[in-house]
DNA sequence: CATGAATGAGTTTTCATTCAT
DNA sequence: GATGAATGAAAACTCATTCAT
């Protein structure tokens, strides 16, 4: 990806996180990215396309982050814990500001079918974990999306609360939260 | 609250749900609310103020909805289940379209302290449930905000997935999801 | 004149002085005058009429002020000096804010002919002074308007400079200024 | 200064002269200047800024006009007369319509200090004349601002009366007025 | 390729005036 | 007479997009 294109995407994400959709102008993006306004239109058809491509860009970033330090030799619980913390770190550190903002889902997207296929591909390590867990009767026999929402994603939601200023959380509470979310999906 | 003010808030909410933030103009609001554009400015300082007050208005609506059909005589599990479904119904039916959308992140906000106080007051029935559950050692000894994020709120997150088009969910799956989220917060 | 009408005129003058034409709204006038907006329209046809009547109101006020402590028995120089200081006091004290603002001449007016007749009537003591001075060859044989502009009115212009912040002036300088302006109209 | 910026300033001045502050809209300015409305906002923050910058622009114009055909070799009286008539011509011809109108009173201003410095620089030829006159005891020993108000500026005030419709003045009367204003500042 | 000034349709906001109470 | 909520036309201002350089 060109340097400029990447700068534009990064700038857009940053501005979206700080100013929200309401209040994102192409001139602001250009200024933040240190390019001319016209330059944006070399890489993106229009504003919608910029937002659309940003969505994919972020998705790729998250997929990459979530699977860091994961290997098949790790136990399911270890893998779960690592992914949960990967998400948490990313959310809390502000590296992917849009996830914790819940603004992410407002980006324009492909249709449901395409998205599912994309997710399956990008988040294969996550799906693999859920599939293995269900195969050995450790996990409840539910759709991966449901399992993910009930467990892994609580990581992002907690991070959002922390960042938005309401929640203070200690390391031991964080640990407890990971285990609690694990309890949601395992069989008892 | 004046008739007109309420009509403006309702109109705004409706338009926000159908068109999103991007396509919300004061003219549209005025037309939908059947008032003159200038009238909006009698009740709200500007567009931001309108959105901010809408936020509070909706919060009140949600608080009211969540506690419907709840009584102290019900068991904790029954209360939990009812609240979970109250949230789910509201989210899925589109009656409180904004709750799912994280659209309010960038509105001017009260500070964390004020917000916490407000939440405590509005969602007292929720807090009471968590407090009782912890008192009798049924629930894990965690902060109510954490417990809520891990359990009740999954209702909204699942609803969002459903609405956004990705997720189809049967009644029995829904039941399983409720129980799974309950598992997250009870002691095992 | 009704109490309310007077309050409206006074409020208008004050607001005009502080905010200028640009930035004078009927609602502001109503608020400042502590009447309802609609009330203004009981006493004035429309905004232009309000401004027009204000002009006459102020003119009357000035005419009254300028002739205070003037009697025919005083010498011309004494009368001149007194009028000059009457104008100066009024301008500097902020009692007739519009004169020093130079905004006065922007108020809508009757046509030149009517105005001349009005001025002749209102400022008869001024005209009398100039006429007497010319009759005894003390003053230069010029039109009263010209004489007034060259002499008496410098009082207002100096006051304006003082109020606008640029000019500091001592009592003896003030005296010198009065005498200098007198020099402009007497024969040498 | 850019071509467009100058065109906007000129258009604004013209419209202000013909329609007054009351009837000056940004659309009109754009149309008169033959630019798009948005273009104005490239060069000026908002309407107030446009007016403020116009003020400075006109001040420069006046300073330039006032010193036309002035040379150090001319006698003080000649210089005075020339400047007086320069001002008169400019005021009467409507080339600097705003000078007479006191319309700038309510614009956001520099503070008194800055303004004084600016004036000293712009109107150096005026100040030089007054300084020389005082040095050789021809003029009264008063502050230049006072001298100017009592003498030179009567040119503008008379012009204003003429333009506003009240005053007709012949060439010989004009001459007499110049000499009369000169009398105000010289020692007798 | 990159620029950024220019565009003008579309937005937010104001405000003179009316009118039911 | 007095009120002030309501109006809506007209104003100020924004911003996605284009295009000459």
From TrEMBL, chains A, B, C, D:
Signal peptide feature range: none
* InterPro entries in the record: DNA-bd_HTH_TetR-type_CS (IPR023772), Homeodomain-like_sf (IPR009057), HTH-type_TetR-like_transc_reg (IPR050109), HTH_TetR (IPR001647), TetR-like_HI_0893_C (IPR054422)
- Which key words tag this protein in UniProt? DNA-binding
Q: Which GO terms label this protein's molecular function in UniProt?
A: DNA-binding transcription factor activity; transcription cis-regulatory region binding
Does the keyword section mention Repeat? no
- Start-end of DNA-binding region: 25-44
Q: Identify the domain of life.
A: Bacteria
**Does this entry carry the keyword Translocase?**
no
HTH tetR-type domain residues: 2-62
Q: What PANTHER family does this protein map onto?
A: HTH-TYPE TRANSCRIPTIONAL REGULATOR RUTR, HTH-TYPE TRANSCRIPTIONAL REPRESSOR FATR
> Per its record, how is this protein called by name?
Putative HTH-type transcriptional regulator
Q: Which organism is it from?
A: Photobacterium andalusiense
């Amino acid at each position: 990806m060109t340097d400029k294109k990447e700068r534009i995407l990064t700038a857009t994400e940053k501005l979206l996180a700080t100013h929200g959709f309401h209040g994102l102008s192409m001139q602001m993006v250009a200024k933040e990215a240190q390019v001319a306004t016209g330059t944006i239109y070399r890489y993106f058809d229009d504003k919608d396309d910029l937002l659309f491509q940003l969505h994919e860009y972020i998705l790729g970033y998250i997929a990459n982050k979530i699977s860091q330090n994961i290997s098949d030799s790790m136990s399911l619980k270890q893998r779960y814990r690592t992914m949960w913390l990967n998400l948490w770190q990313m959310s809390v550190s502000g590296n992917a500001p849009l996830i914790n903002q819940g603004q992410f889902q407002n980006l324009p997207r492909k249709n449901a079918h395409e998205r599912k296929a994309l997710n399956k591909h990008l988040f294969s390590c996550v799906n693999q974990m859920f599939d293995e867990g269900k195969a050995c009767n450790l996990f409840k026999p539910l759709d991966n999306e449901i399992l993910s929402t009930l467990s892994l994603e609580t990581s992002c939601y907690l991070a959002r609360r922390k960042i938005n200023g309401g929640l203070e959380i200690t390391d031991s509470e964080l640990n407890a939260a990971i285990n609690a979310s694990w309890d949601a999906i395992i069989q008892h």
